[in-house]
Specification:
Strand 1, helix 1 (about 10-20) and strand 2 form a beta-alpha-beta unit. Strands 3-2-1-4-5-7-12 form a 7-stranded parallel β-sheet, with helices on both faces. A two-stranded parallel sheet has the order 6-15. A two-stranded parallel ribbon has the order 8-11. The chain contains 11 helices and 15 strands. It has about 290 residues and is of the alpha/beta class. The protein has a domain at about 5-160 and about 185-215 and about 260-280: NAD(P)-binding Rossmann-like Domain (Rossmann fold, 3-Layer(aba) Sandwich), CATH 3.40.50. Helix 1 (about 10-20) crosses helix 6 (about 190-205), helix 3 (about 80-90) runs parallel beside helix 4 (about 130-145) and helix 7 (about 220-230) runs parallel beside helix 11 (about 280-294). The model has no long low-confidence stretch (mean pLDDT about 95).
Length: about 290
Amino acid sequence: MQKILIVGSGDIARRTLSRLVRRYRVYAVLRDPGRMAEWRALGACPLRADLDDRASLQRIAGLADYLLHLAPPPNEGAHDTRTRHLLAALDKGKSLPRRLIYVSTTGVYGDCGGQPIDETRRLHPESSRAARRVDAERCLRRWGRQNGVAVSILRAPGIYAADRLPLERLARGLPALAAADDVYTNHIHADDLAAACVAALRHGRANRAYNVVDDSDLKMADYFDRVAAAFALSPPPRLSRDEAVRQLSPMQWSFMRESRRIGNRRIKQELKLRLAYPTVDVGIAEALARRNAC
């Protein structure tokens, strides 16, 4: 049985695991030893390791045929030291994985002024978070070329699901931008991102990036309005761009100022991915039905 190593064992990893355990022997890297039993019950072989601790990574060298890298970069610094530690550990093994899938972010494109873009768009990260993602992508691409490992990069936007909707934000009355200043935003349901990870393991091309976004074409405040309407919450108050700059924290503003309309042709044609939630309306309706059934 072929072996897959999952690095970064969060929500997307759990959703992906359920799609893999019947066909592969799946190893999952965990930082918290208290979660070992949970992941073992899900069908994985948990490994205690920490990407911030290079000595703990010795066990992963030469372990797997495929690697799914879902771990985020550290919260500070110019580089993704976690990805660099991971690659250094893999280099010490007797064999390397044949294929590596990395989940990055569409934030690597920066602000595109609401223009339609695809994977050929030049990278222009405008936040330190996105810059660390670009560093990770470049390290992985270079390593893959040097070692003959097929590295595919999945760039994900805002991830949502029934338990990942902005209900708390709406309940707190946090603002959105007025229509004249609002930005285009992109989304993917967590289950569709998990499905994309599996599709990339099977069909992803070497040194290739894929935008894993759904078919929705809407602005950020419109998304909040649709969630609010579905769950009988008040829509968010509106701010002009100037008001938002003055009133919001730099972190809040960084999430609201970039505008992109991202195409998804590659995931459909090359990864052969069929979206279970092609628009956020489908996902919101499913989340509401689930709540009403409880």
